[in-house]
Amino acid sequence: MINLRLTSNYFYLKIKKYLLIIKQLNTMKKTTTVLFVALISLVMFSCSTKTKKENAALKTEIAELKEQNAEFAGETYTMASEIGEYRLMLEEIDESVALYDDKNHTVKSILTSDNNDREIEEDVLLHIEHMHGLSENSKHKVAYLEKNVKKLRQVDDVDQEQVHKLEMEVRDMAHTVVARDNEIDALHEMVIAEGIGIAVLAEAYYEQAIYTDVLKEIINTAFFVAGTKKELKEHGILDMDGGFIGIGRVITLNENASLEFMAPIDIDVTNIIELDGKKAELITPHPIDSYTLT
Predict the structure, then answer these.
(1) 178 and 239 share a domain?
(2) Domain residues for 233?
(3) What pLDDT score was predicted for residue 142?
(4) What whole-number distance in Å separates Cα of residue 100 and Cα of residue 106?
(5) pLDDT 10s digits, 76-94
(6) Shared-domain flag, residues 169 and 155
(7) pLDDT at 173 over 80
(8) Is residue 107 domain-shared with residue 156, that is, in the same domain?
(9) What is the pTM of this model?
């Protein structure tokens, strides 16, 4: 038994501040009971109100994601074609992917809460739907960037070194987004194990596979070009650095070389490249055990 010893007036003032239905205090026992119930009710009401507000904001964000994803899918989305703007989009993707950790933590907390089963299921499904929207949005943005950053190479007054760096960052982001799909799959399994059905949401999520394939194509695409040193230099593929009157010069790949003269290959399926001529050498560095010339 816990004894709570306070004066009747104090009780009355504190309770009256929160609930105006108490007008008279008769016994210590009754007041203690009313106080306990009143405070618990107040906490539950506060938490419930907070959750409702958070869910309302979440539904708004989900709707906004759906709208923007539809623009990407319909190829109607537009933005300024500038390196700075593209970098901001990369930051947006990074922030969205970082939210996956928060989502996992939130869903786990909801599953272990004292809410009733219906509330738990509604809250969990809402957060999963939000996570799906973030995932699709990130995939659309990576694909959009990969396509449009290439176009910057055709702009004369753009810093081509920055363009090349941005291309590499976009490819790295494609790796990250695809890799973190595993976390969404793991979350699905955890929720299903708790007896919550996600069939409808899961079906919609797996329809995103076409966008995942686009990112995998970005990741697995490589480019090669073959030719004489003269041809490669004329096409801006090679740089000749250092040396004196042609002696001791080092041949290097021009990082800003246009892809116009290069052939794309899928590194997952291509293991042989046929070259014309009797002798060949690689300009770009590769581990000695990663290739053979025959």
Answers:
(1) no
(2) 225-290
(3) 97
(4) 10
(5) 999 999 999 999 999 999 9
(6) yes
(7) yes
(8) yes
(9) 0.71
